[in-house]
Predict the 3D structure of the following.
Amino acid sequence: MKPVKVGVLGLGTVGGGTVNVLKRNAAEIARRAGREIIITRASAKDLNKVRICDTEGIILSADPMDIINDPEIEIVVELIGGGGVVKDWILKALENGKHVVTANKSLIALHGNEIFAKASEKGVIVAFEAAVAGGIPIIKAIREGLAGNEIEWLAGIINGTGNFILTEMRDKGRDFDDVLAEAQALGYAEADPTFDVEGIDAAHKLTILASIAFGIPLQFDKIYTEGISRITRLDVEYAERLGYRIKHLGIARKTPEGIELRVHPTLIPERRLIANVNGVMNAIVVRGDAVGNTLYYGPGAGAEPTASAVVADIVDVARALTSDPENRVPHLAFQAESLSDILVLHPDNFKTSYYLRLCTEDKPGVLADVTRILADHNISIEAIIQKEALPDETLIPIILLTQITLEKEMNAAIAAIEALDTVNGKVNRIRLETLENK
Amino acid sequence: MKPVKVGVLGLGTVGGGTVNVLKRNAAEIARRAGREIIITRASAKDLNKVRICDTEGIILSADPMDIINDPEIEIVVELIGGGGVVKDWILKALENGKHVVTANKSLIALHGNEIFAKASEKGVIVAFEAAVAGGIPIIKAIREGLAGNEIEWLAGIINGTGNFILTEMRDKGRDFDDVLAEAQALGYAEADPTFDVEGIDAAHKLTILASIAFGIPLQFDKIYTEGISRITRLDVEYAERLGYRIKHLGIARKTPEGIELRVHPTLIPERRLIANVNGVMNAIVVRGDAVGNTLYYGPGAGAEPTASAVVADIVDVARALTSDPENRVPHLAFQAESLSDILVLHPDNFKTSYYLRLCTEDKPGVLADVTRILADHNISIEAIIQKEALPDETLIPIILLTQITLEKEMNAAIAAIEALDTVNGKVNRIRLETLENK
C-alpha cells in the first residue's frame, strides 16, 4: 500500500517524541499498519532551536499553514497545545479535508463539540487518545473495548503532578508547599501550578472521559473542581490510620437523578489497586454493567508515552482513510445524533461519604453537639476518632467518617458545626469513595 | 443503517451472558454502533435446558449448521469452546463468508494460524478479544493502543483460579490442597484442575499475547509451563518476609538471543501494582519502548465480563463489514506476510533471578558448600536467610535469592546442591522477576 504522509505541528516535547518514535519504530509500525507512515513536513516556532529529535528528511516551516495547505499530507498532527490560533489551524486542516490527530486536552474539552461537528461535515477524523492519561489507551478502551457496557462510573488519577505531590506527602510526611516546590524544581509542575494542583487539567480530561463513557456532549463548565492545596500532612496521616489513602480523583457517575462530574481530593480504601498508584503515574477505574470494574494504568505524560498514543492514533487513522465515515468509531463513542442531554447534577445534589476534621476545645459536650448537628441533617457516622490534645495545646482534633449523604445536607451541617463556640476555625472536609465492585 | 444479524453457537455461561448483555444494552449499543445488533439464531446441545438467558425472538437449533448456513447471518459467535468439531464449524462458517467472534482460547492458541489463513482467504474477520483475560480489552490495547511501540515484554496474571489459590494461601496461611478443594467447591476450579493449576490455560493465553506483541506465529508448543502445585505455605511466607509476593505469571520477553515464553510461579516485589492483584482478578503488564510500563486489570472470567469482550468484538466487526480487508487490523496485530520467525528460546537459555529453598543439616560448612557451588556456576547471591531449626527438628531451612542467571547454570547448580550429603531432599526453586520500569 502507498505510504501515508503526515505533517506535524509543533516540535516540542511531544512533537519531538513523536518524530523519534515514528522514526525509530518505522519498520515495526509498517509491519503492523501494512504501509509506511512518513512525516514529510513539520512546523516549529523557532526553526533554529536545538531539538530532541532528528528532523532529517522532514521539511521544516515556521508557518503551520504550509502543512495544512500541502495537498500531499493526509494527516495533520497538532502537538502545539492551547487554544486561540491553534483551534483555527485545526479547523482549517479539517476544512482542507485533512484528518487530525491531537494531544490537546483543553482544546478538545472546551471546543471539541465544534471541532467534531466540522470533522463530521467534512467526513474526516479527529483522534485524541493522547489528550487523556498520556500513553494509557483509555479512550480506545472505553470507546471500543467496553462498547457492550452501560458505563456506570469511572474514577481516575489523571494528573501526574498532583499524584506525585500526594504520594510524597504520604511517603515522607512532607507538607504540600514543600513538595510542590520540589515538583516545580523537577519540572513536573509548571511555574504557575494552578492548572495541575487546582484540578483544571484533570477537569479537562474528565470532560472527555465522561462524554465518551455516557454519550453526552463535552461540558467542561459543568464540572465541579476542587484542588489539593488544602490537604495537610495531618489529613494524609489520619486517613492512613483509618485505612485510606488520599488521591486527587476525577469522578464521573451516572445516578438515577443525573450525572455527577467532579474533581476533588478523595479518601479511598488502601486495598483498592488505584490507591496504590504512586508518583507521576496515572490510572483510571471504569465500571461497566457487564464487565464490572476494570483498571488501566500507565504514564500520564512525557515525550514518548504521549507519542505512543499519538502514533497509535495515526495508525488507526491510516487504516480508516478509505472507510465510510458512518462506519467509523464516532468521535465521542456514541453517534453524534444519539448524544444524550441527561442532566449534569449541581454539586448540592452529589451523594458521597465524607472525612471531616475539626479542632475543638477540650470541654464536655463538644462531641455531643457535633453528632447532634449531623443527625439533624440525616448524616450517619461511620467512625469517630478523638485525639488527645498535644502538650501545650488546648485544642483537640476530632476526625469523623460519615456514610453516604447529600452534599447540601453536609454543607448545612458544616456551617452549623463551624458556628459552634467550641469549634475552632474551619472544618476540613474531604470526600470519601469506596469504589466498590458494585 | 440496517441491523446486523448475529448467530450464537452455544448458550452456556458465556453464550447466555452474551444474549443477556446484547438484549439489556441493545439501545446503548445501537447508540454506539449506529445500527442494531440482533441475535436471530442460536444453537444449543439441549434445547430444553433451563438457561440463564431469555431466548425470546431467537430461533433455537440443536445443529450449529443451521446458523452457519443461514444466508441472513453475517457474524457467527462461537461460544462452545474446545476443539474437534468446533474447529470444523468455525472453518465452515469462514468458508461461507461469515465473520467469526470467539472466546475459544485453546482453539486460537492451537489452530489460530490455520483459522486466520482461512479467514484471510475469504476476506473475513476472526475476532477473539474474549479469549484472553475475559473482560479486559487487552488484545485491543496491545494490537491497536500500543501500535507505535516495540513491545519489550509482558507479564500477566491470566488465570483467575490460580490467583485465587495463591491469594488465599497468602492471606490466610492455608495450604495449596486445602484452597484448591475450596476453589472446586466454589466452582472456580474444575473437577480436573490440571488446566488451571498446571498453567496450560495460562499458556494458551500467553501464546496469543506473545504473538500479537511480537508479530510471531502462534506457537503453543514452545511455551515452558510450570504449575503452582509445588508452592507451599512456607514459600509464600518466606517470600513475604523478603518483600515479595508469589504470582502465577505468563511472561513473554524479547531478548537479543530470542524470545522467552514461560508460565511459572514468580516472586515479584510487593510494591508492584500487579503484586496486589488478588482473588480471581486478572492483570497484564505490558512494556513498550515508547510508553514504558502499562497495566490492564479486570475480571478474567465469568458470564458477563466475557460477554463484554464478545459484544465489543461484534461491534468492531459490524463497523468493519464494508471495509477493505487490507485496511483492517490484522488478526495477529502484524500483517500476515510480516510475521517474524525470530527464535523462541529453549528454557536452558532463559535468564532470570531465583528464590531457592533448601533443607540442610545443622552442621558447620553447609552454607559454605552451597555458596561455593553457586559461585562455581557464576551465580551471584542477592540475599540469604538461614532459619533456626524448629524444636524437635534437626533440619534447617536456607532461603537464597540470586541475581539474574542463565537457567542451565541454575539447573546444574541445583543438581550439585541436591547431591550434597548435608542437603535433604529437593531444592524448591521459584523464579523471581522485578518487572522494573526498564
Q: What stands out?
A: The domain at 352-432 of chain B is CATH 3.30.70.260 (Alpha-Beta Plaits). Chain B has three domains: 4-135+303-338, 143-297, 352-432. Chain B is about 35% helix and 25% strand. Chain B touches chain A through 69 residues (CB under 8 Å).
